[in-house]
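chain below, 282 aa
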Amino acid sequence: MIVPKELLDRSGYVPVTRARLAETLVDLGVRPGGVLMVHVRMSALGWMVGGMDAIVWALCDVVGPEGTLLGFTGWEDSPYHVASWPSGWQQAYRDQPPFDPAVSAARREFGRFPERLRTWPGARRSNHPEVSFAAVGPAAADLLADPGDENPWGPDGPLGRLVAAGGQVLMIGPIKTLTLCHHAEAIARVDGKRYHEYTAPVRVDGAVEWRQYRTLDTFYGTLPYWERDDLLIDGWVATLTDQAIAAGATTHGVIDDCPVMLVDAARATVAIKEWIEANFAS
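prediction:
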């Protein structure tokens, strides 16, 4: 392990350990035996002794053997933008290995946690190539049960089941990409939602099938957020996350300079949904 020199030179700095992280999360209010969705920006922790493995172990310590960890993995070879590529690039994509929940890697831009959780002993993975989650723990099978491909962000998807289970969302680091926002978008009663259609290769019973998918356009925006000047500074996901904070659905702490936020999934969803319905009513 090469320790950053600026940390060695910082007077009084103490590396973050598994036990210290676990103690912080208990004080923050992470519930043992519950369902905990996790976002991690590992660089914000400074030096985490044991790296991402130690983070997962600390999370396991806090939720205990009856608790379940959940992470949004997506897919490294997401088909989201393939239709806009040159023909040669599209052919290269068609020649690639299909999405296989057992082996397909998580998207790298989501950080190191989703891939580490996906490969953790006993982990399960959902079978949607774009709206893909991994989970570890006794509730994993129920959280990731196939909701069908019509509305994977909706009530029967992993986030809907997280909310129904009274789950929490933990954000380690200055992160405002609260994936739970997409569930609120899915269940909000407003017209004009944008959808994205694409085909993707998936492995089914040992064979490759090209399947058609239609999901909320979470990349460019499910709703016309760009028409609102007040969303341009921090982005629309940050604004939706702020609604959960304003509603008192979050608890905040720090580990050294690293912010930590715990979100009550059900309360946050209600707050975000109500803001969407108030601001994008037909």
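DSSP finds ten helices and nine strands in the chain. Residues 45-279 form one domain.
thats it, cya
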